[in-house]
Amino acid sequence: MLQGYSDGRKRLRVGKYRIIYMYTQDGNIEILYIMSVDMRGDIYK
User: Fold this and answer.
1) Which residue pairs, CB below 8 angstroms and at least 24 apart, start in 6-12?
2) Cβ atoms of residues 39 and 15 within 8 Å
3) pLDDT tens digit string along 13-34?
4) Rounded to whole angstroms, what are the CA distances from 16 to 7, 22, 24, 26, 31?
5) pTM above 0.85, yes or no
């Protein structure tokens, strides 16, 4: 979970990159929203 966000955003570290994402569940259907992909120093701006 990312601090400062109440909508359930999470981050995934992949080497020097960070992926900011969130997902919702509706019955058996899962939706993943990829919100941003960028380098570590730039993603949180």
Assistant:
1) 9/35, 11/43
2) no
3) 888 788 888 777 665 556 677 7
4) 25, 20, 26, 32, 25
5) no
